[in-house]
Amino acid sequence: MSIWSAGTSYRGERSSPLRADRKTLRFRRLVERHLELLRLLADIEEKQTGEYILDRQYIEAQIDRAYELGRQIVYDMQVIRDARSEEPYVELDRLHAASLQILRRAEGDAREHHGAAARGEHAPEWEVQALQSIYHDLAAGSPETPSDGGEGFQGERHGDRSLAGLTAWAHDRAGESMRDELLSRAGGQALDLSLSGGTEPALRLFLLQSAEGARDMLREDPARPQHARDGPGPLRMYHSLVEGIGIGLKTAGKSGLLTLQESRSKREGSVVARLRPRLYLSDSALLLGMPSGFPLRLALCCLSPQESENLFYLLFLGDLPLQTPGSPPPAPFVHRRSPHLACLGRISDGWMFGENRLSAPLIEERIRVLGYLLSEWLALPAEELAREGAGRWLEGELGIFLRQNAPRDHAGKE
Amino acid sequence: MQPPVQVMVVDDEPIVGKRLKPALEKSGYEVEVHENGTGALKRLGEKRFDIVVTDVRMEDVDGIQVLEHVLASSDRTKVIIITGYATVEVAREALAKGAFDFIAKPFKPNDLRAIIEKAAEALRADRSREQPPGSSPKT
After folding, report:
1. Are the CB atoms for A207 and A385 separated by under 8 Å?
2. B91 in Cβ contact with B67 (< 8 Å)
3. CA dihedral in degrees (B107, B113, B116, B120; nearest 10)?
4. Per-residue pLDDT reduced to its tens digit, A165-220
5. Which phi-psi region, left, alpha or beta, contains residue A48 (left: φ > 0; alpha: ψ -120 to 50)?
6. Mean pLDDT of the region B79-106
7. Residues of A whose CB is below 8 A from B13
8. Do A99 and A139 form a contact (C-beta atoms < 8 A)?
């Protein structure tokens, strides 16, 4: 069975070109702001480790900018969806006030302790401690049981009550509304990449030992060690994932850098470029090798109206249920962090690399980070990555699988 | 043997001196910490320091005043400015007035130590230039 069978061409109702462009531009702005917010959160994540000397100004400036971006993202989402709701803003105000309260309280406590320090007692590093607490509210939040209402803002959100969770929710909602626009920009193709049961455990990714092991790992297991503490912080990794995908796409366009194979399928109407050995790219989809049983639908859409800039948006459609051969499908896997359901790769000549050159070590490093990020996404221990060897996770096994299963008119060539 | 480089750290946030003093002393510097500009200026009148590291924004006497005082009283003291997150423009002004360098918070202590080492190197180079030709370096 072919591992990818092109979905039917999608033709939705089109709004007027001018209105569609404005909506697209607003969505693009939302995506860029979300990315800026993620970078900001990643910066805070780094600074709250205690290695840095920092001051109140930094903390306050970061808080204010984070919530400013949050409000802009929510506003853009509501414009795109023609929605009008106060609830997200109320939540943002609550979170913002809570962050500032943490800062004030920590500063007050520090003044008390400083008096004690003059008497020889220890004065804690209040800035770092405050930042750690604030970061938790910004990025991690506290899981809560979703409301039973099922409607409206609170009912839609799952658990994560942090700023990161709220903005990811807004991003996803906007993305849903933009789906028609984005799919039409992708040339009307959304590829269904169904790696169905029957594919052998030999399709063993770097992330998973076996389908059974994968299923166990994907289940919420409180006894499972928190691997995120061992490696780079989750937000920094996520940000790197975004860049990593962008680099992969950029690399795909640079045929002189890596061996590039093209094969054309007349039947499917798509060009499948096998970028050995890392990523498999078609003109409308990016395949991130996933273990057997993951139905995964991707659409790659160009958002930029100008040729000089390439802003790609990857839509992950579907909730990635894991299906093992002979077993009933498990309950859909709900991602802890919805940003993973939609991520942005930005490719702009010179934007990332100045001279527009990619070195093999840089690609290697990015792919390694990509692996870490998928580990985080699937909530797997980092030692799995180390064991398999980052950077080789799409070689070998997936290559074998594709050769065995590729459609006849473009069987993989070495 | 060269005498140890004398460093004064001026910052009204106690954590700065608390983190920097041991880090710099480990590198062989002699360090004094002051948590207000007034006390720092008084001490500068009593003793000459090789390097002064000062926060730019303090309540009583700010870092620019410390810089101006130091430059007026000694041409052999290097001043390094610590800026807050939002005061980088002030740091540029300080450079124009004669500060050796600046560093913006948040920073790692090692980053500041590297700048202090550059300042110490510059001081040694200045001293070498001042020695009369043919004379041996003082030990």
Report:
1. yes
2. no
3. -170
4. 788 778 777 877 776 665 555 443 333 322 222 222 222 222 222 222 323 333 33
5. alpha
6. 84
7. 55, 127
8. no
**Smallest Cβ distance to A53: which of B15, B86, B87?**
B15
3-state secondary structure of A119: coil
pLDDT tens column, B22-35: 989 999 999 999 99
A373 or A214: which carries more pLDDT confidence? A373
What distance in Å separates the CA atoms of residue B82 and residue B101, rounded to the nearest whole number?
9
State phi, psi for A142 to the nearest 5 degrees.
-125, 130
Phi-psi region of A391 (alpha: psi -120 to 50; beta: other; left: phi over 0): left
Interval A247-256: pLDDT, tens: 433 333 322 2
Please report the DSSP string for A275-294 in residue order.
ETTTEEEESS-EEPP--TT-
Contacts of A47 in chain B (CB under 8 A): 106
Among A158, A223, A188, A192, which Cα is nearest to A317's?
Answer: A192
* B chain contacts of residue A53, beta-carbon cutoff 8 Å: 15-16, 19-20, 105-109
Interface size, chain A vs chain B, as Cβ–Cβ contacts under 8 Å:
43
| Beta carbons of A102 and A126 less than 8 angstroms apart | no
Confirm or reject contact between B87 and chain A (CB < 8 A): yes
* Residue pointed to by tokens 């929710």: A169
Establish if B21 touches chain A: CB-CB under 8 angstroms: no
In chain B, the residue whose alpha carbon lies closest to the alpha carbon of A118 is: B14
Mean pLDDT of A24-37: 77
* Rounded distance between C-alpha atoms, residue B2 and residue B49, angstroms: 15
Out of B15, B86, B109, closest to residue A125 by CB: B15
Q: Which residue of chain A is at minimal alpha-carbon distance from B112?
A: A53
Q: Estimate the crossing angle of helix A163-185 against helix A17-47, to 10 degrees.
A: 150
Q: Is A58 on the interface with B (CB under 8 A)?
A: yes
Task: Give how far A63 is from chain B: nearest CA, Å.
Answer: 13
3-state SS, B65-106, equals: HHHHHHHHHCCCCEEEEEECCCCHHHHHHHHHHCCCEEEECC
Task: Provide the pLDDT confidence category of residue B5 given band limits of 50, 70 and 90.
Answer: very high
The Cβ of residue A345 has, within 10 Å, a number of other Cβ atoms equal to 21
Q: List the single best residue of A48, A52, A53 to mutate versus B (max B Cβ within 10 A).
A: A53
